Amino acid sequence: MERALMSDPMSKLTDDILVDIISRVPYKSTCCCKCVSTRWRDFFSHPDHRKKLPQPLAGFFYQGYNRDRFPKTARYFTNVSGEGDPLVDPSLSFLPRYSSLEILDCCNGLLLCRCWKPTDPKTLDYVVCNPATEKWVVVPATDWSNKVGVARLGFEPTVSSHFHVFEFIDEEAWGIDESDSELGDWTGSLEAVATYSSKAGVWTHQMVGSTQVAIPKHSKGVFFNSIMHLAAFDEMVAPFDLEGKLQWMIATPHLRYDSPVNNVFVSQGQLYFTGSTRSESGPSVSVWVLEDNNLRNWTLKHTVSHLELFGTTNYSTFDFNVISFHPERNMIFIVYGQENTLMSYEMDCRKRHILRQLGWDCQLEDISDEEKTPFIPYVPLYTESLADGT
Asked: What confidence tens digit (pLDDT) does each residue in 34-46 have?
């Protein structure tokens, strides 16, 4: 027995220490750890440990609009499997009562919500909450919050228990006449970025400066390595540090099709970009990966034709929406067609899987023909503490 202990130093670690170590590694790696030994297999299956360890992608939040029902707008959650009752209550009923609530972003298990107060329809709070633990924090609004279209959340639990909220303040919210804009065809040039740190408990802001950049309202926020990345107009990605300072601009691959701004995604520790291209098979969806942030060069990773994905070549870039990457696999999720069919596509084996039809009313009330309905991927976080949380 003593010889076995000496040959296996991991056996000296207590379960509490193992939980603390393994909670800091990606979910995909934890799946491999189950095969190490019988002890580790039992460790991972134990209910007291399971919720403390990294979790898989659970599903997506989204909103629907139907003028023939009451209420006309509704918030939904669909499981990533496309089956069963929602794993998360999309009403977020554990939060304080507000006249309306909008989910703006999700980052590593925390949601950023914009909540309009019932006492005054022009005033609001931001609320950062954890649906898995039902803990929440109220973040006070800034002087620009009721006019800001884009706000995003940054949170890396392996780095810190504290989070950051980013407000992207455009010309209108800042009080500048857009007719004076120098951005060309696009309106809404950024003037400043306000950031809130839960550790400091205060807002600060940075002026954007001479760089002209505009962020679409539904541009997905991608936060990793302590940098917030957002897709911008003019085929660019705009990265911002924790103080809201604009870093280098990253040009995305040039696309031959006019389309809504294509989002960026993070998967397996790398930044990805998708867009519509043309291949020998006709219209296609292409996937690029940014393998070196310093070089800012995109590498084509995968191409799949519309015929292979949708069974037709008649879809335009407005007829489908790449909504997410799987955080730990070479898989993308797409919503397409009039019935908003949710589909997964595995790049390694070129296999698609129809998950479910979300319905024709799976859309926002005020969305334009050049916008796509946002879907917010959710990975549970069972950590009991939320910095400064209730």
From this structure: 566 666 666 555 5
